[in-house]
Amino acid sequence: MSDIKFDKSTIPDLSGRVVLITGGTGGIGAEITIELAKRNPARLLFTGRNAKAAETTLGRIRSAAPAAEKAVSFVPCDLASLESVRVAADAILAQCGDDRLDMFLANAGIMAKPAGLSPDGYEVHFATNHLGHALLTQKILPLLERTADLPGGDTDPRAVGWKGGNLDFAGGLRTTQESALLGRWVRYCNSKLANMLYARELGRHHPKLLCFSIHPGVVSTGLVADLKLSDRLFIQMTNFGNIVTPEQGAFNHLWAVSAPYESIEQGGFYEPVGVLSSGKGVKAKDEKYATQLWEYTQKELGRFM
After folding, report:
1. Helix, strand or coil for residue 133?
2. 45, 73 Cβ separation under 8 angstroms
3. Which family does the similarity line name (predicted)?
4. Could you tell me how far CA 66 lies from the centroid of its own chain?
């Protein structure tokens, strides 16, 4: 296991703050949710597909931070289904009302799944890891921006995306992309590239918000445990000595919540823990490519807005 470190005492008190995290029902997401619950948030919402797993997270919060129990709530959401995301976004906004939303951590994701399409007809990794989060982001944007405009200066709204390949905008995103060599890994990496590009474009289009993407490291979670043996061995061999626990995998997210606002680069990509990277490959830094993804995404999501 890799020995990455983070001082949890640097996580600020979240009194008065409202935080939303996707994928809080297990793995890294559960660790982040539980850790932030200890910091007295006014409201902490987490999403996931599995209500039973959500109860496990809530039970751990009752043990670790009993005073936070009433502030924490679970919102069912299947990011692969844009209709499910729309319903979840409405539920989130109903709970927040006209109050505020200070931080959005787009943590949830799938990895190396068999070739398939989402209910809306998109390649399933692209649909879950990118489009679902993009729709949720667009739905909550007005509240994030209103929070940025609150008087008093005690606001620093953040949208934190998970790690960011080639994206085939000419119809390929509506196919299973089965033909690619190491197909399931290529499809996964393409969706992560989309996350990186979209975070940068989001910050460019909405400069009131601090938008950036992070890499949690190679984490031993359910994403890995659920893979077939050959894929698990592939991960072990290509990341020998660098695999981290879910608790360690949460460190970069917790850093993203804790770091001074002015110390984070708009649209940046951060390796564990808090290390600014130039990005992975030429495509991750291609402004034209980022614009193309933004325009494609906005067009595809239009009917759900």
Report:
1. helix
2. yes
3. Belongs to the short-chain dehydrogenases/reductases (SDR) family.
4. 26
Q: Supply the DSSP string of 4-70, one letter for each residue.
A: ----GGGSPP-TT-EEEESSTTSHHHHHHHHHHHTT--SEEEEEES-HHHHHHHHHHHHHH-GGGGG
* Cβ atoms of 26 and 51 closer than 8 Å: no
What is the spatial distance between Cα 82 and Cα 133, in angstroms, rounded to a whole number? Answer: 9
Angle in degrees, 0-180, between the axes of helices 27-37 and 251-258, rounded to the nearest 10 = 40
Bridge partners (DSSP) listed for residue 103: 19, 158
Per-state percent for the chain, helix, strand, coil, to nearest 5: 50, 15, 40
Tell me the pLDDT of the chain (305 aa) as tens digits: 456 789 999 999 999 999 999 999 999 999 999 999 999 999 999 999 999 999 999 999 999 999 999 999 999 999 999 999 999 999 999 999 888 999 999 999 988 788 899 999 999 999 999 999 999 999 999 999 999 999 865 667 888 875 554 444 444 455 455 555 566 667 878 888 899 899 999 999 999 999 999 988 765 554 444 545 445 444 444 444 456 688 898 999 999 999 999 999 999 999 899 999 865 565 777 899 899 999 999 999 998 98
Domains along the chain with CATH numbers: 11-299 (3.40.50.720)
Given the structure tokens 């890294």, which residue do they identify?
Answer: 28
Phi, psi of 7 (to 5 degrees): -90, 105
Two tokens at 31? 């660790």
Quickly list DSSP for 168-206.
-TTTGGGS--TTSTTHHHHHHHHHHHHHHHHHHHHHHH-
How buried is 273 (Cβ within 10 angstroms: 0-12 exposed, 13-18 middle, 19+ buried)? buried
